[in-house]
Automatic annotation (TrEMBL):
Swiss-Prot/TrEMBL keywords: DNA-binding, Transcription, Transcription regulation
Source species of the chain: Cohnella luojiensis
IclR-ED domain span: 70-247
Cited InterPro entries: GAF-like_dom_sf (IPR029016), HTH_MetabolicPath_Reg (IPR050707), Tscrpt_reg_IclR_C (IPR014757), Tscrpt_reg_IclR_N (IPR005471), WH-like_DNA-bd_sf (IPR036388), WH_DNA-bd_sf (IPR036390)
Function: May be an activator protein for the gylABX operon.
Pfam families for the chain: HTH_IclR, IclR_C
Domain HTH iclR-type stretches: 8-69
GO biological process: negative regulation of DNA-templated transcription
GO molecular-function terms, A-Z: DNA binding; DNA-binding transcription factor activity
This protein's name: Glycerol operon regulatory protein
């Protein structure tokens, strides 16, 4: 049993190393060790194994690591027929053209939300959304949607996690989630960063399961609270169409 635990832990560490490349094109050994919280010698052994299997490659000139061809080989076999980031892209573009703001798609991954698709606004001053970005579930319109419309057990697990901000009152936040559940959408105004605002609605498939949160974001001087509430019906309608497309 102890040997099995060590083996699983080694896999977890290797995956943590790979996930570093979700937020950067290349990393040095010291940088990776700092990000995953492991000794450089341990990370070096993990990288050597990943490099041997083609999952990372090392640039001899810079002594930095990048993703290898094995990652591309795996992604080539990823099913696109039911991938929301692919299937819903045309509808996201329609919503962007309708509202002239950046449109994003988020899913929950444990205690975080991940942006899996984004369509940038064409306006000169716009909210730029990076695909693959991981954000906390404790703040932001999409975070609140992903929690408000999740199963009660999920909400409890996330809000009782040690990563939950201690300064954020759970009872008050839970009441806010209940209000969002009743309204059908959520807004955020300069919650996560100054000058940014967003409005979000849930996407349900035909079975009634929430699969993602649809978000429209932009500068707070343009996307005011009144404007967000005006946009809400269009966003809810778009989310409904997307859910029908997903089946």
């Amino acid at each position: 049993m102890e040997e099995e635990k060590r083996t699983v832990r080694a896999v977890e560490r290797a995956l943590d190393v790979l996930l570093c490349f979700a937020s950067g094109h290349e990393w040095g050994l010291t940088e990776i060790a700092g990000r995953v919280g492991l000794h450089k010698s341990t990370v070096h052994r993990l990288l050597a194994t990943l490099e041997d299997r083609g999952f990372v490659t090392r640039d001899a000139a810079t002594d930095k690591y990048r993703l290898g061809l094995s990652v591309l080989e795996l992604s080539a076999n990823l099913s696109r027929s039911d991938d929301p980031s692919v299937v819903l892209l045309p509808e996201m573009e329609k919503l962007r053209d309708q509202l002239s703001e950046t449109v994003s798609l988020y899913v929950r991954d444990r205690t975080e939300r991940v942006r899996i698709q984004a369509v940038q606004s064409t306006q000169a001053i716009r909210r730029v959304a990076t695909v693959g970005a991981r954000l906390p579930l404790s703040v932001g319109a999409s975070s609140k949607v992903l929690l408000a419309f999740a199963e009660p057990a999920v909400r409890g697990i996330v809000m009782s996690d040690t990563a939950w901000p201690t300064q954020l009152d759970r009872e008050a936040f839970g009441k806010q989630l209940d209000d969002i559940l009743a309204a059908g959408y959520a807004t955020s105004f300069e919650e996560r960063e100054p000058g940014a605002a967003a409005v979000s609605a849930p996407i349900f498939n035909r079975s009634g399961k929430m699969v993602a949160a649809l978000s429209v974001s932009g500068p707070s001087n343009r996307l005011t609270p009144d404007r967000m509430h005006e946009h809400a019906p269009a966003i809810i309608e778009a989310a409904h169409r997307m859910g029908t497309i997903l089946g």
